[in-house]
């Protein structure tokens, strides 16, 4: 089980590295393919678009494929997309390659989350999922800064080749260490889509889009905030981003046991504390030490929300959690786009570089309101279940013999 979770974490590490590495190499990429830096920034949007499209589509296509085989196929597509990015001779083909790289992102995370939850006892499912998410947070500490430095020294293509190699390592680890998990009778695209029709799933996804929009409203403009307001040099911002990743890792470590103990209170507390930290950063951004402390807390609170949202969606989708778990990452990317747009809007309006913090706090509070709405709806209905062990025919009944459940 620890080796299987490590293999899943390597997948998350590769995804996290490729998702954010492009941002740090935009000038080099722009020079390499002969476009402006703003035009090169569209490559980030291409990847995000691939995530939004690929999560439901690829999960639906693979709805009857056993989870381990689906993981291997999606990881192979991830390797191909990043290798194509490294080989792209011009901007148009690089744009297409980044879209291709993003396609397996959400589906991979969705399947990985379900597989991780089924490797352990039901009362430890959130801890297993949070350990998988550690790969994503470690990518922000090690993978993104390392790939950025490598791309700056050896050329931007080397960063994508590195990610492709990470993908190959993950592919081998998945093949060796992740056990086979049969789908059972209740599988297929119709069953997954029917589970997505649950109102609680819709509210959970809306919570992710709005609440995480607050996180990304600030993260998107963190570097200019640090250079313009805090007085940190351009060369030091990479270290600060690594500190942000340290906070994210701490939040992820807390999220697992807290979510296993009390899912909704962990979600409520994470959103409330995120809003408070963003308001605090509005005032501390002008002083180096308080700013760095607040940045670490923001990173922690952002990650503290990730696991309970993921587990909540898997619970509300009942016996078909894969598409809900995958769609969560489409929601994260919509939050990224929406939060960045709103943060840029207030900066352009002349409210100052610190203003995205207030926008982010407002979005976090709105996400908290949506989460509370879902909680109130739960009080009037039956408790939802997610199967955390692969089972056979008994899957046809949520309370059938042989099924093990986690209740929220």
TrEMBL record:
Q: Where is this region: Disordered?
A: 382-408
User: What is its membrane topology?
Assistant: Multi-pass membrane protein
Transmembrane stretches, by residue range? 44-63, 70-97, 103-121, 133-152, 158-180, 201-223, 235-255, 267-285, 291-313, 334-353, 359-377
CDD domains, alphabetized: MFS_NepI_like
Instruction: Give a Gene Ontology cellular component term annotated to this protein.
Output: plasma membrane
InterPro entries tied to this protein: MFS (IPR011701), MFS_dom (IPR020846), MFS_Efflux_Transporters (IPR050189), MFS_trans_sf (IPR036259)
Query: Main localisation, per the record?
Result: membrane
Q: Which domain of life is it from?
A: Bacteria
Keyword annotations from UniProtKB, A to Z: Cell membrane, Membrane, Transmembrane, Transmembrane helix
Record-level Gene Ontology MF annotations = transmembrane transporter activity
**Xref: Pfam families:** MFS_1 (PF07690)
Entry keyword annotation includes Transmembrane helix: yes
Locations listed in the record: Cell membrane
Which stretches make up the Major facilitator superfamily (MFS) profile domain? 2-379
Q: Could you tell me what this protein is called? A: MFS transporter
Tell me what organism the protein belongs to.
Streptomyces liliiviolaceus
């Amino acid at each position: 089980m620890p080796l299987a979770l490590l293999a899943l974490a390597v997948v998350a590490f590769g995804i996290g590295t490729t998702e954010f590495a492009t941002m740090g190499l935009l000038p080099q990429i722009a020079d390499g393919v002969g476009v402006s830096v703003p035009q090169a920034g569209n490559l980030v949007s291409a990847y995000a678009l691939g995530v939004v499209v690929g999560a439901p589509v690829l999960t639906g296509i693979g709805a009857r494929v056993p989870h381990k085989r689906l993981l291997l196929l999606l990881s192979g597509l991830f390797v191909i997309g990043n290798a194509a990015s490294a080989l792209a001779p011009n901007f148009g083909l690089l744009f297409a390659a980044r879209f291709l790289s993003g396609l397996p992102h959400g589906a991979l995370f969705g399947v990985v989350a379900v597989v991780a939850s089924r490797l352990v006892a039901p009362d430890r499912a959130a801890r297993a999922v949070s350990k998988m998410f550690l790969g994503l947070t470690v990518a922000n500490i090690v993978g993104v800064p390392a790939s950025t430095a490598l791309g700056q020294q050896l050329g931007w293509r080397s960063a994508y080749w590195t990610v492709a190699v990470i993908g190959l390592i993950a592919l081998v680890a998945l093949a060796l260490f992740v056990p086979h998990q049969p789908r059972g009778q209740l599988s297929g695209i119709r069953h997954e889509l029917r589970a997505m029709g649950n109102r609680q799933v819709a509210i959970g996804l809306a919570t992710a889009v709005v609440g995480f929009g607050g996180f990304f409203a600030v993260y998107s403009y963190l570097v200019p905030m640090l250079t313009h307001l805090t007085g940190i040099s351009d060369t030091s911002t990479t270290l600060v981003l690594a500190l942000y990743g340290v906070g994210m890792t701490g939040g992820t470590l807390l999220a697992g046991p807290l979510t296993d103990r009390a899912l909704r209170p962990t979600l409520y507390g994470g959103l409330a504390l995120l809003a408070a930290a963003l308001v605090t950063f509005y005032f501390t951004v002008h002083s180096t030490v308080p700013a760095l402390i607040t940045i670490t807390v923001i990173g922690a609170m952002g990650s503290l929300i990730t696991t309970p949202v993921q587990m909540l969606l898997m619970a509300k989708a009942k016996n078909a959690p894969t598409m809900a778990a995958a769609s969560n990452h489409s929601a994260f990317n919509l939050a990224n786009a929406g939060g960045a747009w709103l943060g840029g809007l207030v900066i352009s309006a002349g409210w100052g570089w610190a203003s995205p913090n207030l926008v982010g706090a407002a979005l976090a509070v709105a996400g908290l309101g949506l989460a509370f709405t879902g909680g109130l709806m739960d009080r009037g209905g039956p408790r939802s279940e997610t199967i955390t062990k692969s089972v056979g025919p008994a899957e046809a009944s949520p309370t059938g013999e042989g099924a093990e459940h986690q209740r929220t």
